[in-house]
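tool_call: predict_structure(chain=1)
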Amino acid sequence: MPVTFVDRSPSITNKAKKQYIDLYDVRTGDVTQIIEQVNAPYIAIICRISAYWDSIGYFERIAASLLEQARDNVLIDFFDRALVETGQRFIFESDGGIGDWTIKDFEEQKTKDLSFCNVKLKVSYSLYGHSFCYEWYRSFFEKENLFNWFNSKLPDYKISLGGSLIDQDPSFSLKLTHK
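tool_result:
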């Protein structure tokens, strides 16, 4: 099955081209815009790329693309607002080092149809002998709100909620299956 890999970062997509030579296509950019150009029956938007979706425009682009060109299955994972609270820490370990996210604050965002939360994080990493720390925002979502939004916008799809795709991760998955 041909796989198209999409990421915003040119360094990540360049690495993917070298490391995964069997990929059908590798593109750099916003997946919610590129999805319109890719003729694929199965779409997976994973690794919580949705954490960067800080406006309803991202969701509207996905919905418009799926209405224009039906897909058999679409899987998207999201950070789950219900699983985090101020002061909570998440530790990530890899071969190259360790990372630490601390939840600092919440900014609830509401539109007419969709709400989400910008979560302020203190992010610290120590990788391959280098350490860095910064504060940044990521978008966290409420399951039922997303379920209802996608259900109202995509009547030709069965919407279902699932668990996290990554162990110990404060996230959930949403699957859209064409009826």
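agent: The two ends are 22 Å apart (CA to CA). Proceeding to next step.
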